[in-house]
Structures are given as C-alpha cells and as structure tokens.
Design goal:
Elements: H1 8-15, H2 38-45, H3 49-86, H4 93-96, H5 102-115
Helix pairs in contact: 1-3, 3-5
C-alpha cells in the first residue's frame, strides 16, 4: 500500500486557518481575518485524513512549544531578578552573570536556549 503524500501547501493553509465560517464569503478565514479565496477553501476541503492529522499534530506541537517557551521566560526572569536584587548596582544581564553559581549559570543557559532560540529576548522591566 503506497504511503499518502502530504501536501505542504495544504498543511500550511490549514495551519493559517481559524476555521470560522464567514457567511459573507461562504469560506473560512486566515488567522489574520482575511477570508479564504474560493481556491483556498476548495483546497482546504480537499485535505486528506493524513494532512488533517499532520496539521493537528503540528498544532499540538506548536502549542506545547509556546507553553514551554512561556514557562522558560518566567523562570529566566525569576532567576535573573533574584541576582539583580542581590546586586542592585547591576544594570544588564552581563553584570550579574559573573555572580551566578555554576548551577544557576547552567540553568540560565538552558532557559535561554528555550526562551530565545534565536538569541533575542526581552525581559519585563520594573521600576
């Protein structure tokens, strides 16, 4: 039995859908509110079972990753604020890094990799 080939363009379209039916266009919408074109709606309705399963799995994985990232940002903020509280002269993260224990530095690096895989993160600022 041949494997079902997944069409990436169909999965991408489904990932960008909010699945809310628009009575004004008789289509679903993109996440940004734009209605599907008739061609996009036809494509979405022709998705195979395998493509729907792949979309559901990808959505679940994205949601889990977003949750993990949010949790990592919170933990990273707590870790850094604990060092800023002990070192009020510190103004930047690089100012508190030398004061971290080896264990906290390892945790800091682990959390950074999750919270900011591209290397950029903005932590909350409190006066």
């Amino acid at each position: 039995m041949p494997e079902t080939e997944l069409r990436i363009e169909v999965i991408a379209l489904l990932m960008d859908s909010d699945f809310k039916f628009r009575p004004d266009t008789n289509t679903w919408s993109h996440r940004d509110g734009r209605p599907f074109t008739r061609a996009e709606q036809a494509t979405a309705l022709q998705a195979t079972h395998a493509e729907l399963e792949a979309t559901a799995a990808l959505s679940a994985r994205n949601a889990a990753a977003a949750l993990e990232q949010g949790t990592a940002v919170e933990a990273l903020t707590e870790l850094l604020f604990s060092y800023f509280a002990r070192h009020p002269e510190a103004r930047m993260v690089m100012d508190v890094l030398p004061h971290m224990t080896e264990e906290d530095r390892t945790e800091y690096e682990r959390l950074c990799a999750i919270a900011a895989p591209d290397g950029g993160i903005y932590l909350p600022y409190e006066d």
